[in-house]
Design a protein that fits this description.
It contains 22 helices and 7 strands. The strands form 2 sheets. A 5-stranded parallel beta sheet has the order 2-1-3-4-7, with helices on both faces. A two-stranded antiparallel sheet has the order 5-6. Helix 20 links the parallel strand 3 and strand 4. The longest helix has 25 residues. It starts with a helix and ends with a helix.
Amino acid sequence: MDAQWSKEVSQVERQDLVMFINACLSCTGQREFYSNHYGKGVSIDFLHDYILGNYRLLYARTLAAGINHFNRAQIILKLLATGRDTSPEHRQEEGALIAAALNQLPPQRAWKVLAEIRRRGINNRRSRAVVRDYIQSRRDISFQAVKYRAKLRAVAIHNHLKLERELAAFLFDPTKIKAYQTAIFEDFRKAKYDREAIYALPVTVAEGFAAQHGIKREIFLDRIQQQMTPGEKLRLQKTANRGKQEIAVDLAQMPLTKLALYVLSLSRGERGDRFAILDDALDSAARRTLQRSPLHLGRVATVLDCSYSASGSSEKRRRPLGIALAAHYLLKAAAQEYRAFWTIPGTEALLVTPRGQTDLATPVLDALEWGADLVAIVSDGWENDPPRGAAQVLEIYRTKLDNQGRTAIVHCNPVFDSDDFLLRSLTPAIPTVGLREAEDLPTLLGFARFAEGAAELADLEAYLAAKVRQLLGEEQDG
């Protein structure tokens, strides 16, 4: 009886952790096609508190599991706010994980976390040490001080930081120094009266000075391009296009999923005109991803959802479709043999648009008939043409035709279902994993066995421990 009870407890714990990690892979707290912002925020916050309260060590180790930036930030904040609950034997590991995860966040997200620490009133020895070490480790702290000046100033006050003389003067009393030795601080000082100085500043800061000087938008955008990040070029491109101005987007520098979303933002006509260039760029981005995260596959089929719900929401326009497109290129580059099956037959990947009902059954049948070693289904799981069509196909295939699991089948869902605290699954017969970025596929295919239920809690704990060693090892090497 005790052994059976222990086994059931372990099973519940494994299910809790798999549910949480899946949510952290896909949920960003933003509105989705079938759910709103408020519901998602409440659901994911509840999950965080539940896992933190019951499995603190594994909650911290989730930071190493390849989760998205939104949930990484939430874990950092909740761990820092509850530091007194950390057991002594795990305090060092937890602190190292927090520091490593914070360092790997993009700067804008990391500064938002630091500002949120102040807003929430988190002020303990470990939080102050984390903030101090983060700022001291920034090699470009002068640039970031200009770009995130208000946040850095607030963080410095809250944590009683001792700053270098010019940095402190720039933040708190900029007129104290008549001429800065730090070039970007001096450019900022000159920008108040010198139009030329603004073009050495970060774009978001330079925009304000350009408005003060009355510089025409098209002139400003043309001259500030050398300061733009790839993300800023994408953000400002539509504004520039309205003014019949071109902002050069470097396709070779864009990550795979962002590139796929950029491609989908173009009209079908533009995609057709630039077909060879865009196709080569996506293929190159996929191969760059595989250089960082190797994935070697045999015969692979993808079932890709391009129904109307793949258009996403006002906050995440075309994101589910973008992830499907990016996954298509990544798996094609990783496979020895590859075929894609879209929910709209005859779809050309680069020209895909979200439309129609969701018929997953037909492409699933085609993929299984083709005889793939791996079938990857990228869909939000809302099939309605017919309802549960693919689910029934998969259940029959797995129980009657391939009960030994010779063909690996995994459902990759880019959308979190806030009503059930889960990813919407097609059927329990196959594992469902959350997919926020196509770049995460190498990690998720390894994680899928835990979602399938074949592995034990001890296996999941060992998996997370290995991820922790990898993350902390990379941080030390860096």
